[in-house]
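Please, structure for the following, as tokens.
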Amino acid sequence: MAITKSAKKRIRSSAQKRVFNLRRLRSMKHETKEFLKLIVGKNVKEAEKMLPNVYKVIDKAAKRGIIKKNNAARKKSRLTKQIVNLKQK
């Protein structure tokens, strides 16, 4: 357990940061799942409309350090690729 005053403060602040990070991670996963539901349902138009929102959530997660930059780029690339594949079919 923390003894010094500053160590106790660090515990409190890290707990608050954890809440924000989990919220952002959950929102990223939720948006991605909603997007994938549209892809499975073959709703190309709605998926294209939702893509900027998904990009925004992924970028914010990368900016805050919840996921790494290359991980965010890979996720965005794969989501875009699914739309392109759906259009070709």
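The CA atoms of residues 23 and 33 lie 15 Å apart. The two ends are 59 Å apart (CA to CA).
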